[in-house]
Amino acid sequence: MGPLRLTLQHFVACPCASPYVVPHRWAGAFRLCIRRLAQTSCMDYDAEVSAVEYAGLAHRPYWVAESKVQMQESEKKKLVKQVMNLGDEGTVKEILSSWVRKVGSRRTRLENSAVGSPGGARYVRYEQVARTVNAVLQDLGRKGYPSAALQVFQWMQLQGWCRLDPHLYTTVIDALGSAGCLDLAEKIFGEMGDSVRKDTVLYNSLLHARSKAGQVEAAAELFDSMKEKNCRPDLYTYNTLMNMHVKVDSGLPKVLSLFKEMCLQGIQPDVVSYDILLAACASKEHVKEAQRIFDAMKKRRVKPTVVTYTSLITVYANAGDFRSAMQVFGEMTAEKCKPNVKTFTSLINSCRRGGHVEEAQSVFEAMKEYGVKPNVMTYNALINVYTERGEQGRAQSIFLEMVQAGLQPTGVSFTVLMSSFKATGAYKDALSIYNQAKQFNKVCSVQTYTEALDTCAKAKNIGGMIRVLDDMRAAACVPNAVTCTVLLVALSSKCSNNIEVSNLLDSLKGFDSKLAQSCHYLLTDSSKPDQEVINILGRCFSSIKKGDVKAWTALSSSLLDALWALGWYRRAALVLGWLCENSNIHDDLCTVMPVEWKLDVRRLSSGGAAVALYQWLAHLLQVAQHVDLLGYNFFDEESSASDSEEGSAAVSVSEDGTGLKESPVKVEVTVPFLPSRTQKAFPKFVTVVCGWGKLSKEEGKSQVQSGVEKEIIKLGVPFRLSNDTGRWTANGEALMRWLLRPETPSRLVLWDMVARNSH
């Protein structure tokens, strides 16, 4: 026993032996040494396990010989079942050690024929153990048992036959990454050291884990680290990065740049690469780009799959191009590519956006001919079609058909139904559907709660809104920008008394949400200085994705309305100034022309329009005072050309509500949309446009018109309503006389009601 063990140890320590592969000329002698060690009569179980460990060094990496070694699927399933049903009576390590002992007790043909074998030796093949345990580790990771997978890996490390094997590290990092345990995967990757060569496959496993977690910057750093260490990225690397940028909605240019870099590196894209590009086109409706990508794919002779055709159909569906979507579907069937349920769901969505209700029903019926069973997403798309058409009865029948088919409705199903009843004013029916949704576990999403809140708000049911907010907190559901927009609208126009306002604000405060807390501070805390208010605004709007103009506009408009309705006039001015500086949605509010100065508030909400009107009049007051001081009587055309530049101006706004001239405390509020300098002349005409038409500039009746009219009448400004109900015009001379009245300056000062009441 002694000489054999000594010889074995010397052999393993031989400098000629690679850490991964024993030279072929030594392999036979090494196996013979192991076999004799295993057949020694005094060998105990520890020596047997040691034989398995040393045998692991006597082979090439086991994944190379995959065609020669077959994994025992039944044994793998049995082990996984034992680990998943593990109780207090054992550990993962004990289960695996017991399995090795059991496998080692089996007699093999080689053992039975061995000369001098005392009753048959227990010999365990390295490939059998390694492949089976490796499969167990992968299966546990896929099924969401990261702790058990980690214990399996630790047992493998204790055995000693995986420490120098990068494939095993790849497997465990993949398993932990798939289970969402990125921290553990990062730790294992960092503890590998220099003993294991980090190849492309190993980097890809951690890259996939970071991409799945949405850590864009960390994934980019790992990608750069690969290239710095001369580890050449492969096709899987680029596909993983491109897919990550599609999921985080980085935009088509970013995905295309990675695609071009991959091609320049000599890596030929596969069908998955093109599918990812088409998916990137779907998010922003890049119809022309998607068609060019599809044509380029066919030129490269890459055969489209059902995923490819479905992705292209989705692009046309998002653009509402039903005919093009059907043409792609026809080409798909002509190529004998069988559509799946996602294909038909995308077709129904294209019908919905194009208003083709009858065609949507035909597509739904055609699914049966193809033998494709509709899923919940398909039913949701069809319910959407009938809801937008105003056929609530038909939408509800589709919902019942889905339930009868044995499918559990999702939050989208209930949300769409609630929206359909809300649109017709059937608020009780909509809330009844919400109560049904609460009976399903984990069905209500933030969209479902937001729809219920909006239903209560339109019904002016503040108590119902508070109950829905309580349900959200109980479900640990965090409000999003749309939810806060609904609450702000309710605060500005739906509450009938201060008690309802206070209760709703208290409910908003109860959420552990940066957005909800920011809105609460802006509407309640009067002790915040200007800079702190600016910082809160930055945190508030940082939760909205860049480029989401619709969400940004809705939240900013509702916030201005709530501030104005609750008496936070000065703070509303600060918010409007910050919005003008940090977005382009309020550009072109002020237009200075040689004869006419115009304020266009059609793109603002009622509260924002009122704030802009006061700041506009305060700026005109400064111009009037300056002109009166210089002795000018009226507009000087020669000086207008140099004074028509646009920029930012400071308007004095008092916190205590005292007069503009007598107030001892004045705070400068930046108004970016006003002209940059105090003009030397007063305009002949001043116009305020509040007609409807945010983008088309069509003047007419507007939702902000009543608010502007109320403030004009309250101030007594000499504006007259033109024949077009969306335009108020004042003669420059008459407006200047009104502005120079002694009582006018104090009436134009914006102050907060809370600050004034405290004085």
Automatic annotation (TrEMBL):
PPR repeats lie at residues 165-195, 199-233, 234-269, 270-304, 305-339, 340-374, 375-409, 445-479. Pfam families: PPR, PPR_2, PPR_3. Keywords: Repeat. Belongs to the PPR family. P subfamily. PANTHER family: OS03G0856100 PROTEIN (PTHR47447), PENTACOTRIPEPTIDE-REPEAT REGION OF PRORP DOMAIN-CONTAINING PROTEIN (PTHR47447:SF28). This is Pentatricopeptide repeat-containing protein.
